Amino acid sequence: MELRIENIAVARGGSIALRIDGEVRLASPGLVQVIGPNGGGKTTLLLALAGLAKTVRGRILVDGINIASDPEKAGRFVSFMPQDIWSRVPQLPLTPIELLTLHYKTLGIVEGVEPESLLESVGVSRSAARSPLHMLSPGVRQRVFLAIAVFSRKPIVLLDEPLSAIDPEGRVELSRVIAGASRDNLILVSSHDPELLLDSTSTIILVASGRLVAWGPSGEVLREDILERVYGELLTAYAGHLHITEGHH
Amino acid sequence: MTNNRVITGAIAALVAALFVLPFRINPMWSIELSLIGLAFGATSPVIASRRLYYLAAVAPHSAFLAASVVPLALALSGLYLGYGALYTLIALVGSIPIALSVLAISRGSSSDLVATLLVAGAASVAILAQFAANMEGAGIPLSTLIAGDPLFLTPKEAALTSIVALASLAASISVYWYHLYTGIYPEGSLLYPSKLRRALGEAGLVVSVAASTTGLVLATGFILQHALLLLPSIIASRISRSASEAMRTSILVSLASSLAGLNIALALDLPPSGVIALILLMLALLASVSRD
To answer: Which of B51, B191, B240 sits opposite A75 (nearest CB)?
Structure first.
């Protein structure tokens, strides 16, 4: 399976939020990290790939099928975990097991569904899986939604800052889950902390100020000259590594 | 969980007793109030599942508007319709603002703005229609629209009320899980269900809310509807441990409150709607205290 992004301009809030001139080709399986400063276009790119942001120019092709601005078509190929989804608390006491079961029913999958063991694999205990979401910590809720995205049986998985509410130990653990899933699927992860997944990363996409700056293998993109253009004086070299202060790496 | 089962069992026994007592005086009363309780008990969690609380303001006012305007319009035009046709026309006219509000909000309008405009518009037009109806000597009495007349329904009216209540109950139960999913994960709701399934989900919401409000306004009055749309799910959300249990609890609470309200109203010669709302309010306060 191949995901191809061709000369797109994506609108959000009535103006163009992201432009990608030229073509980006991503092959499955693999792990793609989307990085860049806040407001640079990471979320917009993932929303566009899910058909949820309006692509006013260009095409987004999955094996030749254009899914741009068409969530129903994109939904055949894509699962999506939105940013800050952990902050959504339902009014009614929906449990993680109920949510995952409901998700699979919505996907039309009824065979071989074991929500409890899937939730356990992302560190949600059996008792938490049966507790209302509003009684769980943000970190546990984030794990629930990570399970929904990763185990949706879709070839392309889009994760928008999936580790933001997770503690440091949990980040390492969930990074392994994401890296494991990237052996069978094409996973795109937006993150401010690319180091955690760097060893498993096949491609980096760097966006800033609503433009594609660079894309390719990490060694080609995470270069001092390229990063300096984006991050300026926030970029420092220390002990042979590049660091970006203010939460960007 | 065990405690919850004991409480549920006790409420079920209470419901049975509350059903039997007025049934011996007039079976229709018990049946009517039970169906009203069931309908609102199921509609309330659907509204809560997507935090569509604006509907609890818009829908009763739409019902009030339709029940004020339709009889006046018929009287002015010289048309006489039987109760069934009048009832249906009120339900259809009242559904229009509800459907429009759901459509506007699904297209990105602010729910606060939509609720404000519709409630203000419906209230002002309804009051003017009531004034004109008084001058014409036509229309449905204002006291009926405010407090409802569940004890004065004829068998034919009661049959229509029952059908509408059952339609609302069926619609609510069939779209509950869709709206829960959409409430917590709207992106998933855009990605995975087909357009037809989404359209049916939204249409089910309109049927559920419109049937229980515009369809039942003559039996419940539009004031009680605010409480019946909001409180059962609020109570259920505080004492339930899962979404499926919340739906069952909401229905049971609404049913028990409706029948208890009927019993107390008969014993004390009070309007049932006021008593039902008071019981629900007390239960909501109790549920809040027990949760804290």
So the answer is: B191
The closest CB to that of B188, out of A90, A92, A103, belongs to A103
Q: Which amino acid is at A80?
A: F
Among the four given CATH numbers 3.80.10.10, 1.10.3470.10, 2.60.15.10, 3.10.129.10, the one describing domain B2-6+26-291 = 1.10.3470.10
d(CA B101, CA B109): 9
Among the listed residues B165, B190, B212, the one whose alpha carbon sits nearest the alpha carbon of residue B47: B212
For the stretch B157-170, pLDDT in tens is: 889 999 999 999 99
Identify all chain B residues contacting A85, using CB atoms and an 8 Å cutoff: 185
- A214 lies in which domain range? 2-77+154-223
In chain A, at which residue ranges do the beta strands (DSSP E only) sit?
2-12, 15-27, 30-35, 54-62, 65-66, 78-81, 156-160, 186-190, 203-208, 211-216, 235-238, 241-244
Q: In whole angstroms, what is the distance from residue A210 CA to residue B213 CA?
A: 48
On whether residue A53 sits in a domain, the answer given is yes
B236 neighbourhood in chain A, CB within 8 Å: 92
Question: Could you tell me whether strands A156-160 and A211-216 are parallel, antiparallel, or unpaired per DSSP bridges?
Answer: unpaired
Contact residues, chain B to chain A, C-beta under 8 Å: 45, 48-49, 51, 177, 180-181, 183-185, 187-195, 233, 236-237, 240-246
> Are β-strands A241-244 and A2-12 bridged in parallel, bridged antiparallel, or unpaired?
unpaired
State how far the Cα of B103 lies from the Cα of B108, in Å rounded to an integer: 9
In degrees and rounded to multiples of 5, residue B236 shows phi and psi of -60, -40
CATH of the domain at A213: 3.40.50.300
Closest-CA residue of chain B to A47? B187
With contact defined as beta carbons under 8 Å apart, do B272 and B150 qualify?
yes
Judge: B191–A74 Cβ closer than 8 Å, yes or no: yes
CA A164 – CA A16 distance, rounded (Å):
26
Percent pLDDT > 70 in chain B is 98
Query: pLDDT tens, A193-208?
Result: 788 899 999 999 999 9
Using an 8 Å CB-CB cutoff, list chain B residues near A99. Answer: 181, 184-185
Whole-complex ipTM: 0.91
- Indicate whether A191 belongs to any domain: yes
Q: Residue B121: CB partners within 8 Å, gap ≥ 6?
A: B97
